[in-house]
Amino acid sequence: MSELFVQAALNTLAQERYQMIYGDAPMEPKLARLLALSDFAERTLARFPEWGAWLLDESQMQMRDCPDVFDFSAPLVEEKQAWQQLRHYRLKYWLKVMWLDLVAGNEIDDSIRYVSQLSDTLISNAYQWAYLSVEAQSGSPKDGAGNSIPMTVLGMGKLGGKELNFSSDIDLIFAYPRSVDTSGGRRSIEAQVFYTRVAQKLISALNQVTIDGQVFRVDMRLRPFGDSGPLVMSYAAMEDYYQDQGREWERYAMLKARPIGEPSPYWQEFYDLIRPFVYRRYIDFSVIDSLRKMKNMIAQEVRRKGLTNNIKLGAGGIREVEFIVQALQLIRGGRETPLQTPSLLQALEELEVLDIVPVEVKNRLHESYLVLRKVEQYLQAFDDKQTQTLPDNNLDCLRLSYLLQCNDYVEVEQMLKVVTQHIRAEFSQVIGEPPEEELDEDDSAVYAWQTGEIAQLGQCRAAPCFETWQTDLVEFKQGLSKKQAGTRGRDILDKLMPALLRELSKQNMEPALARVLGVINKVASRTAYLELLYENHGALTQLIKLCCHSAWIAEHIAKYPILLDELIDPQTLYKPLPLTAYKNEIQQAFLRIDEQDVELQMEALRQFKQTHQLKVAAADATGVLDIMKVSDHLTALAEAIIAKAVDIAWGHMVARFGEPEGATIAEKGFAVIAYGKAGGYELGYNSDLDLVFVHNRDGESQTQGDKPISSRQFYMKLAQRLMHLFNTKTLSGMLYELDTRLRPEGNSGLLAINLESFYQYQLEQAWTWEHQALVRARMVLGESKMAARFEEIRHAILMQQRDVPKLAEDVRNMREKMRAHLNRDSDSLFDLKQGVGGMTDIEFISQFIVLRYGNQYPELCIYPDNIRILEVAKQVSVLSEGECKSLVDAYCFYRDTYHYQCLNSGARCISLTECESMRNAVSDIWHSTLGI
User: Fold this and answer.
1) 755-764 and 768-775 are packed helices; what angle lies between their axes, rounded to 10 degrees?
2) Distances from the Cα of 411 to the Cαs of 393, 399, 401, 408, 423, in angstroms?
3) CB atoms within 10 A of CB 511
4) Average pLDDT for 68-81
5) 226: which residues sit within 8 A by CB, 6+ positions away?
6) Which one, of 329, 355, 425, 294, lies nearest residue 568 by Cα?
7) Separation between Cα atoms, residue 842 and residue 698, nearest integer Å
8) Rounded-to-integer distance, Cα 373 and Cα 365, Å
9) Spatial contact of 351 and 328, defined as CB atoms under 8 Å apart
10) Sign of the Cα pseudo-torsion (245, 251, 253, 258, in order)
11) Among 694, 696, 682, which Cα is nearest to 775's?
12) pLDDT tens digits for 429-485?
């Protein structure tokens, strides 16, 4: 069958049909072509031949107009007339869509969007007519201002996504926001009765078949309780239903829900109540198995009904594209709000923007989906029937070949085969077939889990860790019996645990099983996390790998299981951000967070910290980063979080009191000074933050808001707000423990102090230990002029001429006081931090050198970190090269060891024999430097 044959056959049919309708009138080739390509067009133009001239009006066909069906400024029409107007409207404008598709070669995405807009108009007009009709008899429910309370008409499925085809049916759900009896009618009725009557009238207006056909086939089965449920439900009842009884497939359905008609202030209320049901705040992999089961049920139905060649439900069909996109929406939409859209094409674009789907995959899915939607549109346009089955008659095969510009129908089938293969490949990647069944693998892991006998894992019997693992597994199973995992959770555990044991058996590390089981134990009653590990073998592998490397990581993940999501992609897991990128990354993360949602902001700050700490720890534990780089990253992360927290707190304060005089969001007149490990670029994973807050505004000036307060009060309240943001324990724990006792006058001093007052205090009242602390201080947030002034102050204080014997005595006394309270040395153990010759001794030596020689050698005052201070001390000959090397080597060894101990939950004490020579060298330098 050649292309010429196809055209000849259709031309013959076109001439016959044109003559039957228009007689001897001159042939209009385009109109004749439409008649040959569609039986629906033939029937419609035979009844309304005058619409042919309208179709030939190019300006009319270029418009995407959706005029109202009814003139609501005129008296309300009777039911018979209303039904007729709705059906004639549908006939006319669907004929236009057919012209656009079959004759004008319109783009399919434009056509389905236009059909959806026209459908919205028909539904909205029918609803308004139904509402006004019932209201004329019974009045209507009204709000406090006397305005009628509308019914919410929810479009579901393709209607909700604005993706309707030519002959799609429509899925609707009806709800009402307030249970208020009607008023203004002949007699008052309950809201439920009123809205039910409106719904019934609306359904009849659209669904009833008359001599003019029907507007839409209306399907109400997606409503709560399905066919057995009420036709209309209140918002409150709907919320209760979805919270208590909502099923997984209903989450999938509600993802497409979209209110239709005149925008209402109640729409946002509906979105707010349904969003927590549809989108989980965590990464939700439970949807994959649910969608897989739905797909399998559909496949069974296809086979049962013999639905061969179905481009919607068959393998690689439209439904599989929908499942791919909507699965990723449900998995990640709770945290990525741009994915919360009923539009498949828009969601697909967002998936690419968010780097969830590669651009080439997005393009292939987009193109393949539209090809199938175009074929579906053609199939339905042939006779206005809801079908997705490829034709089995010669005429429709000819039509489809012509429209797809193929030489014959064999070429059509080959083209569709390529398209569906592309879709099927992506579907298998995302939804896939059920994960590998354990019984297809080595059954020993299944038996080991079922019996609680590690010996079933043959390779473990001779391993040194055998007895420990056996105890760990028995204790885990005993503890599991006390948890409420639910049927689904236990099913997943029974699949996950053999896979976990099988993977762990490849490791020969004694604490590995206990660490991993510690994580599983924490999430055993949270099925979504079990699903994540079961559905993502790579994530399970990374969890085991990291738990083997570090006890701290295992405890961190167990404490914050939302971090399991980060294990999915190893390419990003072991790649911390560049040091300069943290501030931009946190700003980007907060673009999608409502500024008014304080709880969500606090959670987002904590999750940002935990996520990036995990990446640093993963790189650290696997040797990608050394200790210095780890501290650099943890310090940069903390600085980014401080900056964002200040912005959040500033917004809260300005909203209440207005800005201090002369201040703006860019120049707040507020700064944060970091001391200790944060100041010295030496933060660890569990470090707290020693911070001091300063400002440079006149304390007596007033803020510029509706409730003005003094600037002094404003900055104090700002600091208090920051303390709240950091120290409050939420579901994700504490952000950082903030310690502000290093501020002037300690706990009795002002929480935020003027920078010049800070200077006067340091100059006139500060103790020696406070000047020691200033050595390791730097401004981590504040505009440049404040940072410059702080450096002037710091240098001025550190470069003071001092009484050297008194300075040495003060430093020694403070060190002995700390050692008496904090040292954990014993006859056999050495405290890395507080022991004689330990880290703190080296820090005190550095601080003494700066305070002793800063007046003579100003370059000693430049850096806040110990290593560079010691290097400068060597350069100016305060320390010999040998002394500097001994101190630097010891400090780096202590930090590395202390850091390793932290990563593996070890104590900060090690055997005295491990570092005896280093301890002695540091002690000797301590005595020679401080004059003892």
Assistant:
1) 130
2) 16, 13, 8, 6, 19
3) 18
4) 92
5) none
6) 355
7) 41
8) 12
9) yes
10) positive
11) 682
12) 776 555 444 334 456 777 778 777 777 665 554 456 667 788 888 888 888 777 766
Strands 689-695 and 738-739: parallel
User: Which amino acid makes up residue 7?
Assistant: Q
Distant-in-sequence, close-in-space partners of 221: CB < 8 Å, separation ≥ 6: 171, 227
Residues 6+ apart with CB under 8 A from 369: 318, 321, 344, 345, 423
Q: How far apart are CA 372 and CA 352, in angstroms?
A: 21
Tokens of 396: 């429709």
State the virtual CA torsion across 369, 107, 168, 119 in degrees, nearest 10.
130
Q: At what angle do helices 711-727 and 627-657 cross, to 10 degrees?
A: 130
**Looking at residue 702, what DSSP letter applies?**
B
Distance CA 16, CA 787 (A): 88
Which pLDDT tens digit goes with each residue over 359-402? Answer: 999 999 999 999 999 999 999 999 999 888 899 899 999 999 99
Say if CB 164 and CB 115 are below 8 A apart: yes
pLDDT given for residue 437 in this prediction: 41
- List, for residues 572-606, the tens digit of each pLDDT value: 778 888 999 999 999 988 887 878 888 889 999 99
Output the pTM of the full model.
0.61
Cα–chain center distance at 23: 63
Angle, vertex CA 625, rays to CA 623 and CA 631, nearest 5: 135
Cα four-point dihedral sign 14, 18, 24, 27: negative
**What are the phi and psi torsion angles at 739 (to 5°)?**
-120, 115
Tokens at residue 875, please? 């350069």
What are the backbone angles phi and psi of residue 179, rounded to the nearest 5°? -90, 85
Pairing of strands 218-219, 182-184: unpaired
